[in-house]
Amino acid sequence: MNLINYLKSKKMLVPLALGLVAFVIVIIAYSINGQVTQAVLASTIRQSTPILLGALCGILCERSGVVNIGIEGQMLLSAFMGFMVNVWTGNLFVAVLAGMATGALLGLLHAFMSVTLKLDQIIGGSVINILALGLTGFFYTAGLTTKGKLQPISLGFLAEIPLVGPVLFRNPPITFVAILLVFILQFVLFKTTWGLRTRAVGEHPRAADTLGINVFTTRYINVIMGGAIAGLAGAFLTLEAVGSFERNMTNGRGFVALAVMIFGKWSPLGAWGAALLFGFANAVQTQIQFAGTINIPHQFIGMLPYLLTIIVLAGFVGRARPPAADGEPYEKE
Amino acid sequence: MANKPVLESKNITKRFPGVLANDQVSMHLDEGEILAILGENGAGKTTLLNIIYGLYSQDEGDIFINGELTTINNPQDAIKKGIGMVHQHFMLVPVFTVTENMILGAEVSTAGVLNLKEARRRILEISNAYGLKVDPDAIVEELPVGIQQRVEILKALFRDARILILDEPTAVLTPQEIEELFDVMRELKSKGVSIIFISHKLKEVLAIADRIMVMRRGAVVGETFPKDTNQSDLANMMVGREVLLRVEKEEAHPKEPVFEIVDLSIQEPGQLHTVKNVSLTVLEGEILGIAGVQGNGQTELVEGITGLRSYNQGSILIDGKPMPVEKPRALVENGMAHIPEDRQKHGLVLPYPLTDNLVLCSYYEHPFVKGIVRNEDAIEEHAIKLIDAFDIRTPSPYIDAGNLSGGNQQKLIVARELSRDVKIVIANQPTRGLDVGSIEYIHRTLVEMRDRGVGILLVSAELDEIMSLSDRIAVIYEGEIVAILDAKDATREELGILMAGSRKHLSEEATA
Q1: Total count of domains within chain A
Q2: Interchain CB contact of B104 with A (< 8 Å)
Q3: pLDDT value at residue B512
Q4: How far is B113 from chain A (nearest CA, A)?
Q5: Least C-beta-crowded within 10 Å: which of A119, A154, B58, B227?
Q6: CB pairs under 8 A between A and B
């Protein structure tokens, strides 16, 4: 009982319980059909990566008090720029950097609109989404493919562990970076000076201001960093997952990322859990369609992940409390 | 003078568009001194201190710290010079712990990583040194207001403040908490901290200050010592004319019950304070005051009885007639007037002109409509009549309510609510944040209404207001009415004790 109360007080009870259930299901599934289980789990990680990165972008922005619904657009334009730079230079690394730079630049644009111009942040985000959709649609050239794709890296003996190895320790670089970022950002937000100041600016900018913290700079930097992370998500799509660019290839992932951010209660670890859940639903959905044994129109099966997101958001999260000054431009007196 | 002033301002002038907020203000503060700056709202007290704290920059004038000419461009500069400020609205992040709030901006860290353990140790050290007890791990929003203020003071001390600016620190405190704050101030003074104390409450200023500086319309109008002055002199100096400090009123002649609250309870999940089994009866021609520290269910109670919030149990009656739940219009039509707590949020539509604000409860009735269109002539005539009758200072009935001063906004609400044919007035904090002149006016109007036979339910956190206006006083604590007293017999001390919930605790201990 004491343990339960302790976990409750640390708000760890629900995640742990869910994790335990998931673990048991995985073990059972693995003993029934190892190959499919491994495929589903690997696909879970793959599917969750761009959403996770998008959510991390959202967390940085909103923790500092800027609502960013332009993640979708940031991802899309970054995916395109990363792709084009790879086509031009043939270099994957440079291409990823180009993707991140694109995201960061759009972040700068968003910060300029919402922090300096104090524009309505929903409109600012929409501007970015429409801009990205328009630009990529206009410059899109059919038939191009990347010169190579980011390849999986095996982390030595860890990758040899059955099931866990291939799923967690044999992944392409951006996937690793995404998981690493979860822990880095969790630490930065809650254990460092920068994180404390960021959260203060998102909760009570005037208080931060009276203590000599520059609200504008803090917001700018967080939104730009977030943009770079969203850019990484874009680069993931073209350079790691697909190897080519398609019109509107983000397909709503930037918005799902926002849902995931809320589900994860604006914390990187929480968002990771939520992204995995969404990725898992997507993986199962794909698997069902591949197996073709269930006779349901594929459109309905395709809805599964979104439905799950709605149900989880509506039912299980409880009242998630956004940062108090989220979306409010700061005006000096 | 033996001591060199720790802080001195010379000829500070600050203009805002259309306003001269500070006009050649010169002041000085000595070491270990408590200087009170007294003035009405808009007298420029807060502007002056915001300049000293670096939130504004002055147009003209100089600031000297320890005799040295200093430029303060931002709060960081001020903090470095040993100035700490406790703002009227606390500058604390509600969801942070005490420790996190204390160190924000002055973090204890190694290579950017917070060292919370060391921070905690230093906080406890300071808290012990000055006798200000606080739990470093508590979440700020869960602390009582008095303790939050203590955190603010500690926050300044944590930054090695030697000059402490307290902006209206007593506005949110109970009488007991005010006493505690004064003890803290004396303790700080004995440790050599110099304090500037801003207030518009005469009694407090006389009780704690070593020296009093009075400001009016941006300028210093006088300086005096507590032993050389008294409340009415100070009030006259502050307002610039004779003011009546006491509310002049005759004996009340209460008649029949006009408004009844029967066993009302409001329970909302996750709410700290709710309303529990409140029963009150307001008679025609009396003022029933509800005294209590802010946040003890007054807001919920008033919202419940004015139809803005539903309740779980109980009923309300006007003239013996039961009223429907959460139907404000029905209440208005049955003769209820409501002067809400937050005049800007709930009392007025700020971007609407005065004309429209004055018909917010009656725009759909004759003579303000003709068929389905508004009767602009009648609305304008109505506005002109009320602006005149209630002495609302405005250049035109068509300017937006948001452009009026606080006092005039409140008069606007009072005009709208009390010009109707009302039987019961619910006045929640009717004079909060108003200057002495406007307070006098509102008080007089309420007493006039009472003498005409209207029932008045007055909710206020200002004990003085409750005591001087009410005929009977009910005390609310944690959502319950813990006592109802006759105003003639009630003493400050007794009310203070009741407001702090002591009687309840005593009786609970007795039964345990």
Answers
A1: 1
A2: yes
A3: 40
A4: 4
A5: B227
A6: 69
